[in-house]
């Protein structure tokens, strides 16, 4: 499969998705008087909060935060009111850690990643990961994080980043799932999408960094999710798109599944041009079977859906025609300005001539031999294929564009056109007279030619001329005004005359 470029001149103007500093500045909280909240805390917790407030040194803040969490775990009187008060204090004191740039520019440097999670906020996350699930004190940490999340929603994607960057929690998102369960009124899917949207608005690079793990660890939510896909394609640039494609080709990322694939395609019809081409590039990277994509074709209109039509056309080009794909193509209107059907039929007629001839014959034969009641029943059930007239319109357009009649001289096409002509009305015969006239230049319509040639009347005349020089002028003159059926009969009679001649010779020897 190929990655599909966006067409020049068709792109809609898109404003930058980010304004990283602006969105982070909006996250800054107004200064809050912490005095009433400090009064609700135990002495040890209050002292720890004041120490964090009184120092700007990151290492000292981390040490104090670690002691604070240890005190919290051991405090039997720690309740919901105390948790809310402590969450307010910590969100105020750690506000800069939520608004400063989190993801390092040199994200491939492991040391830079490790340094980025070296602040006091991540000490809380580290304690959560190190506390066993069966430990009752774990719930106190989750309660605190839930109260902090209500006051600072960006805490969610900070936790996702920590779980990916921290080696002790590598490939383990169970802690995030437990965190989401502790939030009131939010399910895992809603919490995840909300956190990722905030992350995308704040830092596209961090968002793309998280995506492979999100699809791996939350496959039931992420794979085939139109909303998440739109978040991705609406913010990536060429480099980030290439990184995603490389992840897909290396087997580290799966973004689609069969049961939700059509819903993704339907949703994408409303997206911007560049977003749609990014989606189709990701589809091409997955090498999705064309049968998964074909059901969307009848819904695509020209020129409103030029992006998916272009992408699907290139995908069909990479595949040999099948009964299903040809049926979908032929069901399109052959009289409109839409070049889709004509383009792929012309390509197939040149690259897969025999296969296309076989499939076209199958479609025409089915329509001419199926009883009318059966066709009506199939139409009501949505199982009907393209009608005869619909197919003839496409063949007529193909005839006008092909420089060579090689496809139409194929014995299967000739035979099927002959059968269709017998069932057409006078008006239809007149409308497609140029198409049917191609049969009039063909000899031996019902016979399969050799693999090296398809016999045209001009070729037959040349052959007969050479035969005439050999002394068969009488045979040619007797064939001159005969129809194709008499010609076929004469071809059949020739071997019989040879047998009679052999019989006479054998009789002579016996005598």
Overall description:
This protein has 511 residues and is an all-alpha fold. It is 66% helix and 0% strand. The longest helix is centred in the last third of the chain and has 27 residues, at 484-510. The chain is elongated and about 100 Å long.
Structure in a nutshell:
The protein has helices at residues 20-27, 35-38, 43-54, 58-74, 80-93, 95-99, 110-116, 120-130, 138-151, 155-165, 174-181, 188-202, 204-217, 219-222, 226-233, 238-249, 258-268, 273-286, 290-293, 306-317, 323-330, 340-351, 353-369, 372-380, 388-401, 411-423, 426-431, 433-436, 457-469, 473-479, 484-510. By secondary structure, the protein is mainly alpha-helical. α23 (353-369) packs parallel to α26 (411-423).
Report the β-strand fraction as a percent range.
under 5%
Q: Whole-number radius of gyration?
A: 37 Å
The major beta sheet can be summarized as: none
User: What is the straight-line distance between the termini?
Assistant: 75 Å
The best one-word shape is elongated
Count every beta strand, where a strand is a DSSP E run of 2 or more residues.
Answer: 0
Low-pLDDT windows of residues: 1-22, 442-447, 450-511
Which secondary-structure class do the elements indicate? Answer: mainly alpha
If you average the pLDDT, what whole number results?
81
Give the helix proportion (percent range): 55-70%
Count of alpha/pi helices = 31
